[in-house]
Design brief:
By secondary structure, the chain is mostly helical. The protein has 6 helices and no strands.
Amino acid sequence: MNRAAVLATLLLALAAAFPVLAREAQPLAEDERTEARLSAIAAELRCLVCQNESLASSRADLAMDLKREIRDQIRAGKSDAEIRDFLVRRYGDFVLYRPPLKESTFLLWGGPFFLLVAAAAGAALFVRRRRQRAPAALSVEQEARADALLEEKARP
């Protein structure tokens, strides 16, 4: 009973200390327009650390740094296109959720279509080969042996 009380006290102390260990919320920009532009731009960008998460919803340290960089560029008077171009120059087309169609991203855009066509062709080929196979005919000896086995199985 005494150990349970000590364990419960330790767990309670840990739970009380946990909010202290959590990160503080990042301050918003002084200007609501700046924050709205940041949100719009960040929603179109991919977090470079997180798997398939937008920059706007990511809490990773790199994402916070990128948001801070975007805020600074907004304050400097850069347009949304200039900010996106800066990030693409720095991190490549991967940072964009909708990268442009060009030679380096053709596989990204056309890949799923080609995989779908290849899978359909493979399935059609598999079905065609299965239909062409005729069941193997048994020889007279094999039929006699099968009949004998079935008769043995039928006897109690």
